[in-house]
Amino acid sequence: MLFETEKLKEIQLQIDLILEKILEYENTYKTQIASVHPNYTESAKNLIHYLALRSFDNDVFQDKLNKLGLPNTSSSESSVLHNILIYKTIINHLLKTPDTNFQHSYISKSESKQLLKKHANALFGEINRNRRTRIMVTQPTIAAEDKNFAKSLTELGMDCARLNCVHDNEIIWNQIIKNTKEANPNCKIMMDLGGPKLRTSKMKPGHKVIHIKPKRNSLGQVIVPAKVWLAPFGMLPPENMEVDAIIPVNKKWLKKTRKGSYITFKDSRDKKCKITIESKHGLGRLASCTDSAFVTTGTQLTVFLEKKSTSEIHTVHEILPLEEVIFLFEGDYLKLNKKPILGEPTKYDEKGNLIEYAHISCTLPQIFSNVKKGELIYFDDGKIEGIIKEVTANFLLIEITNAKKTGGKLKADKGINLPNSNLKISGLTEKDKEDLKFIAKNADVVNFSFVNSKSDIEDLLHEFKKLEASLGIIVKIETKKAFKNLPSILLKAMENYPIGVMIARGDLAIETGWKNFAVIQEEILRICEAAHLPDIWATQVLENLAKKGIPTRAEITDAAMSQRVECVMLNKGLYIEKAVKMLDKILCKMQLIQKKKMAVLPKLEFSKNDL
Hints:
Blueprint: H1 2-28, H2 30-35, H3 41-53, H4 59-67, H5 80-95, H6 109-124, E1 134-138, H7 142-145, H8 147-156, E2 160-164, H9 170-183, E3 188-192, E4 209-212, E5 215-216, E6 222-224, E7 226-231, E8 245-248, H10 251-255, E9 262-266, E10 272-281, E11 284-289, E12 293-296, E13 300-304, E14 311-315, E15 326-328, E16 333-337, E17 347-348, E18 354-356, E19 358-361, E20 376-379, E21 384-391, E22 395-402, E23 408-410, E24 416-417, H11 430-442, E25 445-448, H12 454-467, E26 472-477, H13 480-484, H14 486-493, E27 499-504, H15 505-512, H16 514-530, E28 535-538, H17 543-548, H18 553-561, E29 567-570, H19 576-590, E30 594-595, E31 598-599
Parallel strand pairs: 1-2, 1-29, 2-3, 3-25, 7-8, 16-19, 25-26, 26-27, 27-28, 28-29
Antiparallel strand pairs: 4-12, 5-6, 7-11, 9-10, 9-13, 10-11, 13-14, 15-23, 16-22, 17-18, 20-21, 20-24, 21-22, 30-31
């Protein structure tokens, strides 16, 4: 009994220290709390209380509570002060000491749930489905052309539509919004600002050739014919159609073809090849080819319309040059140029001696003043890893430390990440400010990319005032700096109503390191829970299913975990409708056994005969 009394007194002392810290923090940050939107006053206070709690190492405290059979603090984010006071009352009762009144307002667990629900409804709209978690779907260009597409997504489970300002234009955005609102007037429109994305610049043009390459097995046998798009110059295939090659041809000649027509030609190697028309799509045709072929400008095509005697000859129109690709292996060197010099692969002389390192430029040359020797650099979503070996006025010399054994392919417009560098890049670009004018008039929420500090939020709110905009904000957390500054970013953003947080897991994983990302993702979820702010689970959710039609086991588990947040984002893909349907089912089933972090225990059905 004496042992338990000593343990209880230790817990009592720790509780008093936490309460003192809560009052101290609340006084320190009273200006920030007073500045938030009135709807967030209690939420801002609770966030500050949570930061005060987390200023202690609570492992020992939690362990003591567990050993005494008392509830611990691991799920107290949403109502911190209320939970601490409950512990205080229990401990005082067990020690038979007077329960001193703590004169301070607080919110209960049930009140915090209502606040989160209120804030989520304000941001995403009320959900009229048999699930708690919303589904946000990134809109492809086809959504502007096909009204039934938006209707289908809505019926399958889409609650919010996301448009990315990096792609398309105002005419297409406007049509997508119109079609979406006609399908579901309550569907919220979320628009992403592009932000100052750091990417690789253009490569030097290669040969003017189209390589048709069917898929083969290990024996060299064709298992999947190549998909070929035949169309007038500049006409691309529908966005939801994946093709392996595009051949520009005369529209009058092509107009005469139909399903079953076939085309013969000799490629650049004088090899006889054949293409068969599979389907018609406006002025274009989708065809298949089982031959590996190299098609160049002027290649003569002979189309057989119905019978072999009915044929017409045509030559391939001007083919755009292929973009060069840089293949990088571990131990190779790459120059990242400051000036906009077209990229090229490594050059060797006839004897195989190195003449010049592979080189490419970047879209944000201002980063050169922020990087240092020895810092890490990643390309193409982390597929190619390197370390900066030399920093000069004109280029960075990078040693490749990790890539595919067959060589990492580096092309133009691929992302660059510098996780160790202190990049001084603003969250708003001039294009973002122009796009905001459209967003303010046509969307409900702006997704704010590349937020690093509260000053970025201040810039956005300043633009809101200039435009007299009334918009929700989703803050995209995608850098290490953004995570470190998350509390101050949220308190500043909470001056606007409503707001949410998107965990941009792709960039964030690279920026923070693969081994750290799982912990950081969990911490973001906890901080948002403390602020009663809805989260968006983003990046590659059911990606394989959306793009290839078949999910992986890992992404099914990932989708199941996403029920912990208020919204899940899907990227576009050929099978996006299938992905929406699958995610809807997963979320509905998961909430039967788990509500956010809390396990739900429905009746378990199993065979007693097997016991």
